[in-house]
Please model this.
Amino acid sequence: MSESSVRITEIFYSLQGESRTVGLPTVFVRLTGCPLRCQYCDSEYAFFGGERKALTDILAEVAAFNPRYVCVTGGEPLAQPDCVPLMAALCDAGYEVSLETSGALPIDAVDPRVSRVLDLKTPGSGESGRNLYENIPLLTGHDQVKFVLCSRSDYDWARLKLDELKLLERAGEVLFSPSFGQLAGKDLADWVVADNLPVRFQLQLHKVLWDDAPGY
Ligand code: SF4
Model:
């Protein structure tokens, strides 16, 4: 049987730009390919190409950075079946592993040691029809739910979903981010405070620091 492998766009060391571990040095393993086309996508360069790598080679590349945190991202990592054993192997190696997923594919096979950062796609993304709501009951306090908001109507939609899906009770964190260049961070911050919402407002640190250049 051939060794497990996944198609990789890049592996790099940077600061985590968002989520519960924002600001912490983290190795990013970016898998190639995504079945979605969000209108604000900032990683279109990961849709195609990449290089197929064996899991053992990926583990060796990650180990060379001697990290504590590893983030498996994309694209949509779960679109490649061998992403699941890759994440388990990263956990076995002792890293604190997170997964960034669009929320459009099943998360049930993901190792429970992984913190799943699950997007709920808003109407403004253009891909809200892809949300797989069967994932929601699977969330635990180790997981995070992320909304990228494009407008006030996206914000109002997200507030409804918070209550309807009981997200604050199910997930360890609920993250509200403004879509870069589409919604002013200050506006979103003001709305969150005015509504006294117990969500974590976040800006994408890597865009502030490095202007969204690949490899950061
Ligand atoms: S799910 Fe993520 S990678 Fe895929 S199109 Fe949307 S923003 Fe881009």
Notes: The chain is about 25% helix and 25% strand.
